[in-house]
Amino acid sequence: IGLPEGEYDHYGLKYKTAGGAARSLEGTLIGCAIGQNELLQRMIKFTTCSLQEAVITASVTPAKLLGLKNKGKLAAGCDADVVLLDEDLNVFATLVGGKVVYRKGSSQGSVNSR
């Protein structure tokens, strides 16, 4: 998950990814190039927060800040976009709109919903 190290062009913005960071060719930090699960792992490691605190920080808090009432939580009336992680915080499955779109170990990484 995330972008492999290399050079990219996003709508005319050329940038390079290395060490998990995305930087303009001039060197300005413009973003992150690692998956959300690795961000959770790093947050827990470097802050010693709990898994629950890290998940809230990565989901509930951004949704609230952006005013997205149907995102960031599992509740009736909310979008059913969910990432399931294993005990090591590796992605096991991804659901979008309540439908499985990725399952670890499936032949092509993604699966059709049933």
Tell me about this structure.
With 114 residues, the protein is α+β, with helices and mostly antiparallel strands. It contains 3 helices and 7 strands. The strands form 2 sheets. It has a 4-stranded antiparallel beta sheet, with no helix packed on it. Helix 1 (36-47) crosses helix 2. The longest helix has 12 residues, at 36-47. The two termini are 24 Å apart.
In brief, what are we looking at here?
The protein has 114 residues and is an alpha+beta fold. The chain is built from 3 helices and 7 strands, in the order ββββαααβββ.
**Proportion of helical residues:** 10-25%
Tell me what portion of residues adopts beta-strand conformation: 25-35%
Through-space gap between termini: 24 Å
Order of helices and strands: EEEEHHHEEE
Query: What is the approximate shape?
Result: globular
The spatial strand order of the largest sheet comes to 1-2-3-4
- Number of alpha- plus pi-helical segments: 3
- Alpha carbon gyration radius: 16 Å
Q: Structural class, judged by helices and strands?
A: alpha+beta
Beta-strand segment tally? 7
Whole-number average pLDDT? 89
Task: Detail the topology: elements first, then pairings.
Blueprint (H helix, E strand, L loop, with lengths): L5 E5 L2 E6 L2 E4 L4 E4 L3 H12 L3 H8 L1 H6 L16 E4 L5 E6 L2 E5 L11
Salient structural properties:
alpha+beta; 114 residues; globular; single chain; 30% strand; four-stranded antiparallel β-sheet; three-stranded antiparallel β-sheet
